[in-house]
Amino acid sequence: MVISSEFVSREDIRNRKFGEVWHTLIPYVFKDVPEYYDVGNAVASLGTYPLWTRTFARVVHARMNDLPRGAKVLDVASGTHDIPLRLLAMNPGLEVHAVDGSSAMIAEGQRIAKERNFTIHAQVCDAHSLPFPDASFDVVTIQFASRHLEVIRAFSEIYRVLKPGGLFCHNDMLRPSSRIIEVPYLIFLRASVWCTSRLFGASKEARRCVGYFADAIHNFYTPEEMTALLYELGFTNVAKRSLLTGTMCYHIAQKSMKADRYLLELFADPVPEERATMR
Ligand SMILES: C[S@@+](CC[C@H](N)C(=O)[O-])C[C@H]1O[C@@H](n2cnc3c(N)ncnc32)[C@H](O)[C@@H]1O
């Protein structure tokens, strides 16, 4: 894995600008919103959010067709389990794990899962340090969360826990590639987050984040940059689809087999001819 200096410095800027918000305010925001999170998202996105997440979940499901029954899926920063619930509805045979930094979001997700008779193995943890051994999962998903994370650190963890050849499915609101889209979009986003927070009586901390959501997108990656970053992190076969040049965008990438093959070869028993010459 070789990360170019451009991405390292972009991450550095994001950490300096938003590190404090991520550590101090974001946990309070997601403690506050579980009951109105889904409705709030639908309002803030003028109804596109549920359609886009449904499309993403269907694409993930279609890409998982070759996997055996009981394939292991991990949803990182799972919130109220939107993606796990959609995947289980399409394929109840999956073994689904979920992690999130907010116990309140997980509790709401678990309540819905129980209501629908689904099992989701959930735990509270930081997305930058996943409590699973290397190569544990066939598929890892993350939706609407990487804007709030140190992307290189979090995606490296995802790479580590994926099995060789496993799929990484990423969905988020990215920075639009087109300035003509970006400028009005961020004005709209600021206004809609403000209205949503007032409408649902958000906490003081959540109200202090109103400007953050648009700023975080302005400092985030465009769809093309996200593709380049995924390749630099070692993923292959990166495919993407975006709405309005990145207001919503998903990427499906694969963990390379190559690095692991290289390691296997390095530690494998010598082949018979080599053994003969070694005697
Ligand atoms: C916008 S919500 C998205 C939830 C869910 N993935 C969805 O699509 O509905 C962002 C989630 O990221 C979680 N989160 C933010 N920073 C995190 C971190 N460092 N580690 C784990 N979870 C984090 C929040 O608790 C929240 O549940």
Automatic annotation (TrEMBL):
Key words of the record: Methyltransferase, S-adenosyl-L-methionine, Transferase
SUPFAM superfamilies documented for this protein: S-adenosyl-L-methionine-dependent methyltransferases
Molecular functions per Gene Ontology: methyltransferase activity
InterPro entries assigned: SAM-dependent_MTases_sf (IPR029063), UbiE/COQ5_MeTrFase (IPR004033)
GO biological process terms held by the UniProt record: methylation
The keyword Transcription appears for this protein: no
Signal peptide (from-to): none
Ranges annotated as spanning the membrane: none
Protein name: Methyltransferase type 11
